[in-house]
Amino acid sequence: MRIRSARRSDLRLLQDIERAAGEPFRTLGMHSVADDDPPPLDLLESYRRAGRCWVATDPLSATGDRPLGYVIADPVDGALHIEQISVDPVAARRGIGRTLIDRLAALAPGQGLTALTLTTFSDVPWNAPYYARIGFRVLHDRELTEGLRTIRGEEAQHGLDRWPRVCMRRDLLPAQPSAPAPVPAPASVPGPAPESASVAVSGAP
């Protein structure tokens, strides 16, 4: 599996992935979620231009470099917030979502961000229970930051609170500073030792 930055030519494909990823919600009676429009092209383009839109591809498969999943994210209150992550159902159970999230977890500390956050449906099997298995925990209301409260408010206005939703967080290890390159010792010029000098030999008493 390859994770790369999204290209402009990918964006309509990401909309197709979003539509396909919504269909399983129908089996739970969540028809309005399934019918929700995908992110508009101008929004996806803004994420792409900001360097915050990544896609997963499988170059060794028949799909080649065609995106099979994608993620977009924003820095929110010191964490990298996963705004949307979706995988084409035809590529489900191949670890694509986990691989996308692991890429974010690797990138975030280098930007001074200490965690990943997201909002999701608590009772949908491929939502909160899945994220709990890969290291996220549900945040209590008192733990919500101002930014997360704003996001939850916007979701409620969009009608998503018809079903229980939660905020989740995965703490990350801080970025490790790279070791400084060793300074090479100055080159020595061989020459005869003065007669009065003693020559040290390793291991000699």
Provide the fold topology.
Layout: E1 2-5, H1 11-22, H2 31-34, H3 41-49, E2 53-58, E3 64-76, E4 79-87, H4 96-107, E5 115-121, H5 128-133, E6 137-138, H6 146-157, E7 165-171
Parallel strand pairs: 4-5
Antiparallel strand pairs: 1-2, 2-3, 3-4, 5-7, 6-7
CA radius of gyration is 25 Å
Number of helices: 6
Which percent range describes the beta-strand content? 15-25%
Could you describe the largest sheet, including whether it forms a barrel?
7 strands, mixed
Oligomer: single chain
In whole angstroms, the N-to-C terminal distance is: 59 Å
The helix fraction, in percent, is: 25-40%
pLDDT < 50 runs, ≥5 residues: 187-205
Which word captures the global form?
globular
Mean pLDDT: 89
What is the number of strand segments?
7
Strand order of the largest sheet: 1-2-3-4-5-7-6
Which structural class matches the secondary elements? alpha+beta
List the secondary-structure elements in sequence, H or E: EHHHEEEHEHEHE
What descriptors fit this protein?
205 residues, alpha+beta, globular
Written description of the protein model:
The structure is a single chain. A seven-stranded mixed beta sheet has the order 1-2-3-4-5-7-6, sandwiched between helices. 27% of the residues lie in helices and 23% in strands. It contains six helices and seven strands, in the order E-H-H-H-E-E-E-H-E-H-E-H-E. The model is unreliable at 187-205 (pLDDT under 50). It has 205 residues and is of the alpha+beta class.
Provide a concise account of the structure shown:
By secondary structure, the chain is of the alpha+beta class. The chain is built from 6 helices and 7 strands; from the N terminus they run E-H-H-H-E-E-E-H-E-H-E-H-E.
